[in-house]
Amino acid sequence: MASGESYDVVVVGSGGGGLVGAYVAASRGLRTLVIEKTDRVGGTTAYSGAGVWYPGSAPLKRAGIEEGPQDARTYLRTVVADETREHLQDAYLEAGRRLIAELEENPWFQSFVHGPVPDYFASVPGATSAGRTIFPPDVVVAELGDRAELVRGSIPRERWGVERGPVFTGGRALIGRALAAFLETGNGTLRLNTRLESLVLEDDRVVGVTATSEDERITFRAGRGVLLAAGGFERNAELRAKYHPVPLDGTWSNGCPANTGDALQAGVAVGAATDLLDEAWYVPGLVQPDGLPVFHMGTRGGIWVNGAGERFVNETGPYDQIGHEMVRLHTTTGVSHIPSHWVFDQRHLDRDSFGGDPEQPPNPAWWESGALKKADTLEELAELIGVPYDALRRSVEEFNSYSGSGVDERFHRGEAPFDQMSHHIVGFPAGPVMNYPAKSTPGFANQVLLPIDTPPFYAATIVLSDIGTKGGLKTDENARVLRPDGEAIPGLYAAGNTAAAMSGRVYPGAGTPIGSSLAFAYRAVLDLVGEQTG
């Protein structure tokens, strides 16, 4: 085994938390190494819109969004409903504001901007329809120079070869900016294709990592500490089968393909405690012509039915809540909800198209692959998707009865502020996949409750996907990894999906996962350099 160089800080993983944490360390004069398992930086962050949920931050104030100092705290306390996480919530709120102020002082990060994505629990005290999510500015690829080639592509690029384009948006913009800022400190080193194998422990302190690169085992020492920010275990079939209520193998995940829990297992091997290992950031996934799903939100037409042909959810609701409802119903009712079926008609197809630009007809691959099915009658469609016709007919008739009043009496679709984004946008707001203005159909008060009555009829498949697991190493408010007795393991920190989520079993608002990753990576670095935190 070779002995590599010694550094002040070693960061495992190059997603948002890893690179921003590395930049914060390197900008303070610490020699910082980032090791990345794959040949590209960015992890799951590169697939995302890179929203961060940071109440009270400067970009929100610039947008004219003012709130009382306790509003966000009240909201978090109420939706998470877990006293054991209150210290983490307070640390998160303080760090988010402080981190953004610091990043915006660096020209590479420029100014984050507010994105109006409402909080996900609208009726809870402290919630706001304006949202508390901010996004990084786009970056021209040419400005990044050769570094642009190091940034992981979007899901459309990696899966279907879609051209990169001249501008990075969302997660790729954040990763490109963070990578440039990190390397330009003069204190940063990046090693790709370097996989964490284990942590080096001396006298009960973590003093480095052992990694594998090109079949060679190398030890890198870390004088101040090791930050594990290497994502979750969503692509590890064995761990998912062991911990998750629905034993998916990771094929349907929208997390980075390399996220197999290496950092989690390395932490456990040195005595770390864990929490929430049965949880994930669940999302509905629309199965594409290649047979794999893509994170889906923004349903404007049609209904979703289970294996019994029954409608079961508000299809425009917050995605994590829909995903968890799919899990609950699938595991408790005896009726299959994974997969489910999205049923709609020609009126919906004419207005919004399907699977892409609403100004263009669906790609023929949808039909050729069978990912989108078509029938002249509902009875024929029921046979195609394998659900009872009478139940499907009743579900459609009940839904159609709501179009006149514009009120979904069963699931209240279109009523909450988050739902109402679907009145205006087709696709994920500020995301890398699609973001198109929505069309309206005259004569209907609620544009997400149009009747399903215009043949032919169509069906697509909805499965349970995720954007990562959310259980991991147990940490304190400064991201120090804890033992089962609550004592910190000296020299070891964790952030992002390598750590158990600050938000527990809920998803408070857009940007909570990436926001948590950045905030706790920041607090980790402040702790290891001895800077005071709030």
Number of strands: 23
Instruction: Give the radius of gyration.
Output: 23 Å
Assign the structural class, choosing from mainly alpha, mainly beta, alpha/beta, alpha+beta, or little secondary structure.
alpha+beta
Mean pLDDT: 94
- What's the end-to-end separation, in Å? 42 Å
SSE topology sketch:
Layout: E1 2-12, H1 16-27, E2 32-35, E3 52-53, H2 58-62, H3 71-80, H4 86-103, E4 113-115, E5 133-135, E6 139-140, H5 141-144, H6 155-160, E7 167-168, H7 170-183, E8 188-191, E9 194-202, E10 205-213, E11 216-228, H8 237-243, H9 262-269, E12 274-275, E13 280-287, E14 293-295, E15 303-305, H10 319-332, E16 340-345, H11 346-352, H12 365-369, E17 372-375, H13 378-385, H14 389-400, H15 417-420, E18 425-427, E19 435-437, E20 457-469, E21 472-473, E22 480-482, E23 488-494, H16 512-529
Parallel strand pairs: 1-2, 1-11, 2-8, 11-23
Antiparallel strand pairs: 3-5, 4-5, 6-7, 9-10, 10-11, 12-21, 13-14, 13-20, 15-16, 16-20, 17-20, 18-19, 22-23
Helix pairs in contact: 1-7, 1-16, 3-4, 4-16, 13-14
Model description:
This protein is α+β, with helices and mostly antiparallel strands and 534 residues long. 28% of the residues lie in helices and 22% in strands. The chain contains 16 helices and 23 strands. The protein has helices at residues 16-27, 58-62, 71-80, 86-103, 141-144, 155-160, 170-183, 237-243, 262-269, 319-332, 346-352, 365-369, 378-385, 389-400, 417-420, 512-529; strands spanning 2-12, 32-35, 52-53, 113-115, 133-135, 139-140, 167-168, 188-191, 194-202, 205-213, 216-228, 274-275, 280-287, 293-295, 303-305, 340-345, 372-375, 425-427, 435-437, 457-469, 472-473, 480-482, 488-494. Strands 1, 2, 8, 9, 10, 11, 22 and 23 form an 8-stranded mixed sheet that branches. A hairpin with a 5-residue loop joins strand 22 (480-482) and strand 23. Helix 13 (378-385) crosses helix 14. The longest helix is centred in the N-terminal third of the chain and has 18 residues, at 86-103. The radius of gyration is 23 Å and the shape is globular. The protein starts with a strand and ends in a 5-residue tail after the last helix. Mean pLDDT is 94; it is low at 428-434.
